[in-house]
Amino acid sequence: MSANEFDALSDGIEPDPRFSLANERTFLAWIRTALALVAGGLAVTQVLPSFGFPGGRRFLGLPLMAVGAVISWMSYSHWRATQQAMRRDEPLPPSPMLRVVSATVAAVAVAATVFAIVSKS
What we know:
The chain contains four helices and no strands. It is an all-alpha fold. It has one domain.
């Protein structure tokens, strides 16, 4: 942790420990979600049977892995912004991760459905 980052997290008033711990639990839940997306994407690319056309498994699996990586970084940024807001007694920032995960899972589900319908096997 850099000196500037430490200063930003020590600015303001120390929040109730229950809120800081709840923020940390939320961060860890997002990390679990990111890991699940990466593992699911890897399983899709390596374990699923072929759809009968080249690149189908990669088309489904790679976005899951990429979004898992993005969510892991965004979760830290959101944890930090939330911690700062609590210390400064400001409104909590909204989380863009809900929209990102929802859109990705919906898009992959639609693509998987189409692939399953048009698959030759």
